[in-house]
Amino acid sequence: MRYELMVGLRYTRARRRNRFVGVNSAVSMIGIALGVWALIVILSVMNGLQKEIRTRILGVASHVQVLGPGGRLADWPAVAKLAAGQPHVLAAAPFVEAQAMLSSGRSVRPSLVRGVLPADEEKVAELARHMRSGSLDVLRPGAFQVLLGTDLAFSLGVIPGDKVALIAPQGMVTPAGVMPRLKQFTVAGTFQAGIAEADARLALVHMADAQALYRFGQNVSGVRLKLDDLFAARGVARDLQAKLPPQASAVDWTRSHAAFFHAVELEKRVMFVILALIILVAAINIISTLVVAVADRQADIAILRTVGASPGSVVRIFMVQGIVIGVLGTAVGLATGILTALNIDVIVPAIENAFRFKIFAKDVYLIPDLPSELQAGDVIAVTLMALALSFLATLYPSWRAARVNPAEALRYE
Fold it and tell me: Which of 60, 186, 248, 276 could bridge to 198 as Cys pair (CB 3.0-4.6 Å)?
């Protein structure tokens, strides 16, 4: 063991002559531990929320969509067969999608009407587990039945069995002028996907009914694809684009919901910066601790210099002190953060039972439980940042220690 490390560790363990140094060291260590703990837990929770929201969105949306020019895709069976033959593609389903107004009594709401083939739609979406009443199987061609999001049904004031009027934006030319195309549908059920865009706007009908209402003929709006790996969507869309007919386009979920996921990622980065300030404050405390320690140990420094210690050796001695504080604080924060993130599904209910209140009430939040996903990349990034800040905090005090003049320090000893 080099003597600089031995002396530095001895200074760390020794009883402080200046009580302020010991207290400040403890505060710095606790601050680093709290910062590392908070960062790991918050980043894990945000990862869990991001995964949960992504799962909910892709339960209604699709991994990849093949869209036709002008919103109409001809010869869709050939496109679906071509897409199904690509790597990672598990299933393909055609759909017709268009805007409409839904009316019931005096309530009128805008909606997004999606015509689907129930048997195929169940292969590319997870709506079955989101159904509150009814099922996709009740949608039959010519029956003109509709499944509504729960928020949309509530705003219209309808329940299964009620009638709603669907008003298409395309008009019909009559002797009396252009009249809106209107068709009465029967509410066959409701679903709650947990996404406002779907629950408040989406209406599902049979694809044949949508084709008749919007005069699509045998055309569709596009084909929805489900993949075995959602993160392969960008590559699948790129490869498929090269094989599609002219003017058709393949759009993956990272493009169709890019704004939302960019906002979530930005929020995660901002939270990282904000919580990193806790570690920065603790690192500043390390600076003040070592500055006081240098002032308190000037006689020791002078003796070391007198017996032949170089300025570099003195720098390393006091760097050891600061790094020990940083390493111990980081280790404690790392251990508690990982344990908390891995057991948050047990900790949160225990806190709720102890204080008799719900953090996430089921009647208020769509996600009643706090999800958590611990990622190795986040843990490594937080650990390296904490150790780097602790190391940088030792540089100035150690440099000050190396500049101590032995003669001046021993003058009054």
Answer: 60
List C-alpha distances in Å: 185 to 24, 106, 143, 384: 72, 16, 8, 60
Q: Are residues 70 and 181 in the same domain?
A: yes
Q: Which domain holds residue 405?
A: 3-55+261-410
Single-letter amino acid code for the residue at 412: Y
| Joined tokens for residue 119 | 């048997």
Whether residues 189 and 326 fall in one domain:
no
Say what the pTM is.
0.70
For the chain, how many residues are written? 413
What residues are paired with 108 via a beta bridge? 103
Of the candidates 255, 280, 296, which is a domain's last residue?
255
Same domain? 397 vs 291? yes
Q: What is the mean pLDDT of each run of 10 residues along the chain (413 residues)?
A: 65 57 75 89 86 74 83 85 86 89 88 89 80 86 90 90 86 57 88 80 90 87 86 85 82 76 79 83 80 73 72 77 85 92 83 74 60 87 89 83 68 59
Q: What is the tally of structural domains in the chain? A: 2
Q: Counting beta carbons within 10 angstroms of the beta carbon of residue 256, is it exposed (0 to 12), middle (13 to 18) or buried (19 or more)?
A: middle
Check residue 99 and give left, alpha or beta (phi > 0: left; psi -120 to 50: alpha).
beta
Query: Residue holding tokens 């225990």?
Result: 350
Contact 333, 34 (CB under 8 A): yes
Do 245 and 292 fall into the same domain? Answer: no
Both 82 and 223 in a single domain? yes
